[in-house]
Write a structure and sequence with these properties.
11 helices, 21% strand, Ribosomal Protein S5, domain 2, 389 residues, binds alpha-D-galactopyranose, six-stranded mixed beta sheet, alpha+beta
Amino acid sequence: MNELLKAFEERFQTSSNGVRFFYSGGRVNLIGEHTDYNDGYVFPAALSLGSYVCIKNRSDSIVRLAATDLDGVVEADLRHLDQYKSIPWGKYQLGIINEFLCRGDKVRGADILYYDTIPHSGGLSSSAAIQLVTARAIADMNEIEISNVELAQLARRSEHRYIGVQCGVMDQFASAMGKERHAILLNCKTLEYEYIPLDLKDCCLIIANTNKKRQLADSKYNERFAECQKALSILRQYRPEITALCDLSTAELQELLSKLDDPVLRKRAVHVVSENDRVLKSAEVLKKGDLETFGQYLNESHASLKELYEVTGIELDTLAENAQKMDGVLGSRMTGAGFGGCTVSIVKQDFAEEFCQKLDKIYSAQIGYAPSFYRPAISGGSREVLEIK
Ligand code: GLA
């Protein structure tokens, strides 16, 4: 904390008296990929890897942003926030402040220093962590009464309107509402949620990062969103009461499938509806402590994301498919949007070391560079903190 205070003073050339600290985590999604914007279920957990800020209000309308791992300071005027939508760094933060202003909240200028412990562009939602830590900090520094669930919705709106990605609510919700040692079973249509203990017995979660440089991920993501909307609009001609693909059960979709002429749309719809089903089944078996079956669902999810939704790629497939074959591994799949990013695996603790070593070797030989591995704890939601871990 002292180091951060020093960095704050150096970067902003101002005293750090009165600075406050906030935290919000990234997320790992256990299962339920590309279901959120189809109003289905997801099953994420917030991570102890995330984003911290130290923040101090100013007496003018200027916001200054800096990060410990980046040079320089981004300066923005609260009166003209629509001018910063395409800046390379800082737009996630400014998009959040813009949403508060759109709600009619009074926001003062501030100096904000970010310290991220989460890999960027790694598929663990570093951007949701940045959004939510900014949102909690701005709310509390300006005495705006707003719950973490509302902050998650605000952050999603910001991503749609300021960043231009048609994301679902999963990442923001997980970051805002995480609970230590629990996963969140979230109904993205109603935002009803249930915390389910993540009791992995003699197993642990290992996250493996492809370290692939993600290109065009946002545009491919929006393409998948558009395909789902298209499939929905066709199916609504036969079932006008549905408002999203996940309103259909697997059996109902089977009956309607021939109405989708385009094979691509058929594949997308089958993935979404079957994945939604897998989330509910996964939560059930996890509650019963049946980790073997849970692991099977993870493997099926990966196969569906590869074959039907086509968002994996050689890097994620190499990690997940080789992991699935290893001793001591119950299941492995890509997590997040795909197109690079991370996998999540359930591995017997006794095999954890061997798992990382073997996978590192195989992946490096096949792909040409090494993956990274993390075993973060499952953490709480967006909050003010008095210490930095
Ligand atoms: C990204 C989006 C989420 C979700 C996942 C895929 O992380 O931000 O809303 O759609 O991809 O499940």
